[in-house]
Amino acid sequence: MSGLAQLLLSSSVSRPHHQLSRSDPGDIDPLGAQQRRGLIAVSCIAAVSLLATCSLLCFLTYRFIFWKKYYQRPLGHNHYVVLVYNLALADAQQCLGFMISLRWLDKNAVTADNPFCFLQGVWLQIGDPMSGLFVLVIAVYTALRVMRDYHISHRLFVTVVVSLWVFGILLFIIPIAVLGRWAWLPAVAWCWIAPGQLALWVWTHYFWIFLTQFVTLLLYAALFIQVRRRIAECADLGGRRASLRNMHRVASYMVIYPIIYTILTVPLAAGRMASLAGHTPSITYFCVSGSMMTLSGLFDTVLYTLARKQSVLDSERRGLSSTASDLLGSGNGVQQTDTAFARTTSRIGEPIVQSDWDEDVIQIHY
């Protein structure tokens, strides 16, 4: 973080001139044909993702408020659901940022003096890194529970979540503190951090995205290997064939999310880094990569609500769950498969292995 400290203390950071106007060469006026087509695609995809994330937020908010109708304990104590809720909040802000592109289509220009330019920069500056950081926290939380059988206290959990949002606020305050009102300027097809501000680009944005991609892939790779090893050990002990087959499927699902997240976020980040190196990609490239990034909200919603046969929200009500550590173990050896699956201890708020004898389905929710 020394680079970020030097950035804040440096007086040599150039600031855009305060007389920027519609005629400023930094404005995009009028939009080119490629930019119009690209912004139409970005806006439409952002609208779909925003609808998905808002639906998830409304559903979870309803369950948070009226939890007594469905659960024995407040849903806010379910750490997994709270993390998903905060991830959806970050995704929604990212979608809102890209949807401001509708304003540029209406005006046929992207201008720095328009208040929507400032708002777009703020929302993208918060949404992009914060969605990645909550993905990272979910990965760390899962690894601690499954690999170390570590139970985080609710107070510490709340502290971590609040601290993340405070950090997210700092990420957009720092560019404003350094560059002032003109921290966000037209960049290719939408507004973002003023072009040429390498330290701001890296330390307040893309460093955290790349960190999330790297650490998350490492953690889920380790989880995947451990689950597969436990599956093999259970098979040697004569575990039920159907149960082991479902566990193989679960082990495969565990690596889908980090792979999808990386695929969706790398292109835009790589394009920005290439621009800093003097090899600026085409406008079409940036619009396509921006469209991919704004798909994050839709994919998050699908992966956390529709891709599972049984919802984590039903875990306490059904009473048919056992902790993941019961199956994966943390130094206690491998249990006989049927015994592990027969446990019915329900701990809402923790990654679980859920067993449904009627459907012979075993799910690891993470």
From TrEMBL:
GO terms for cellular component: plasma membrane. It is found in: Membrane. One of its GO terms (biological process) is adenylate cyclase-activating G protein-coupled receptor signaling pathway. Gene3D superfamilies: Rhodopsin 7-helix transmembrane proteins. GO terms for molecular function: G protein-coupled receptor activity. InterPro entries: GPR1/2/3_C. It comes from the Eukaryota. The chain crosses the membrane at residues 38-60, 80-102, 122-144, 156-185, 205-225, 250-270, 282-307. Residues 245-309 form the G protein-coupled receptor GPR1/2/3 C-terminal domain. It holds the Pfam family GPR_Gpa2_C. Coiled coil: none annotated. Signal peptide: none annotated. It is a multi-pass membrane protein. Keywords: Membrane, Transmembrane, Transmembrane helix. This is G protein-coupled receptor GPR1/2/3 C-terminal domain-containing protein. It comes from Aspergillus puulaauensis.
